[in-house]
Amino acid sequence: MIEVRHLSKSFVKYEKEKGLWGMIKGFVNAKKVITKAVDDLSFSIAKGEVIGYIGANGAGKSTTIKMLTGILTPSSGEVTVDGVIPYKDRITNARNIGVVFGQRTQLWWDLPLIESFTILKDIYQVSDADYTERMTLFNEILHINEFLKSPVRTLSLGQRMRADIAASLLHNPKILYLDEPTIGLDVNAKKNMREAIKKMNASFQTTVILTTHDLDDIEELCQRILIIDAGKLIYDGALSDIKTKYGSDCKVSFVLKEPWKDFVDLAKMMDVDPLSITVTLNDDKLEIGFDKRNLSVATVTATIMKHFEVSDLSIQETDIEAIVARIYREGHA
Amino acid sequence: MSTLKPYWAYAKATFTVGLAYRLHILFWVLSDIVQVSVLLLIWTAIFNSSSASTIQGYTLGQMMIYNLVIYMTGSFAFMRPLWDLAEDHYDGKIAMSLIKPTKYLYEVFFRNLGNNFIGNLIISLPLVTVLVGVSLTMNTGVTYTVANVGLYVVSIILALVISFFSNFLFATMIFLTDATFGMMQLNEAVIKIFSGSMIPLTFFPGWLRAIAEILPYASVYSVPTLILIGRLNGMDLWSALGLQVAWAVGLVIVTNLVWNRIIERLKVHGG
Fold first, then answer.
1. Among A80, A192, A324, B138, whose Cα sits 20 to 30 Å from the Cα of B122?
2. Alpha helices in B21-59 (DSSP H)
3. Would you tell me which residues 97-116 of chain B have a C-beta closer than 8 angstroms to some C-beta of chain A?
């Protein structure tokens, strides 16, 4: 469905020096700086997949989406979306795609919501029968009828996002790009939004590409993730793989009844290599970090509790958030 | 005309948005009434302080008619794509247009057309009333023939196209410079001087008048106005219409070429 080969995009920026004199100097002769927002990106996405596209702020996510949607022209490399080169044949591509930018809206701000749908119906030339059918379905999934007559500017963020998703699907696109669709939503609204995306994917076989900072979105929706950092693709694979690869780190924290004074060789007691565990002690707080492949949580807790009086303990397994933070930090997967 | 159907939706949208703001419309009408009144008062003062009853071939009544008609012509034909481009470019809203199966250039054209319909509805009525009033009460000697009215309509349609594409071409400079406000001021100033909307072009010295008449701004304001009030006749009429056609065709071609180049190097603001 989507093929990306060696895609790059650089931007030219003019850098100005600080202060008034710098502004004046910059006015006459600004320093030209070329930044690579996307650097030699390659991947392919099949029909019906739900892909999580993640990366830190400024990693190049939005730039990639803008090239896939035909808004930006790549500096080099190739993109085809359903056989169409987006920036060369923007209009054909536009009929195949739906786009929701979480920070923008494609609805007419000053008009009742229903007007936006009738205008989009004309723009995409959706037949009356299709229009009625889809609007019924949107209401079932996204519950938009309750505010269909309100001006868009009066909608809550959650309502507006639901309406925006419906608007982006009115012409039944093959691919749906969701750029931070849950940004700023409350917990419930997020949940509803995820449900809706799942149902849409199931009923229309829509390929979904989702960029987000909310890792719950990823866990709920995506089978596969792409991680981008400084414009380069650093991970492309199943979410479960990355979890097995990094998710074996574990940490058990104890609160001891009495501060620990004497030296005890924990590694020897648990019969492991001392370098494979980390021990931090802070007054009565003891933390032991280890890899679950070498050592079980049961062994660790049993050993500690045999030697100390413990008043409280908690176990922290690595969540996807920690994994992604680690990958961003290390810059590779 | 099915290929135009998506574009009419944009015209319908801006038209509907315009109607949604009743107070805005009220102030719009008021500001027009003030502007036209000031123009008429200034000309009355000029004629009263002059010993001659005609200035550059205009009597006071004719000058009033000229001002009313050119004001009306402006409200029919003048388009402000500069405004759309500035706004769409400034906050990156243009991204939402570029994901639609329509061409941005023509989307903006139809958006403006929807706006102009509103303008026509609101402004034409009071203006035409005053125009009829002045024509009836003052013996101006201006007659409106069927032929002139017909040619006026044709000329207005050409003026719409010229106005839109020349202003769009100018507005594209914004994309290259990011200097929105200055560009807008410059554009408005150039239009005011060279269109004949401030004073008739016959008031200019010969060489300046020759330049102004060739520039597209005269084709937007002055030409339709002079056609309707019967001051363009014979060869002058046909050459003015011919120049309008040439500008319209030329600007459509050039603007399309320039815009297609710009789209390729577009920077979209915001995330």
1. B138
2. 22-48
3. 98-103
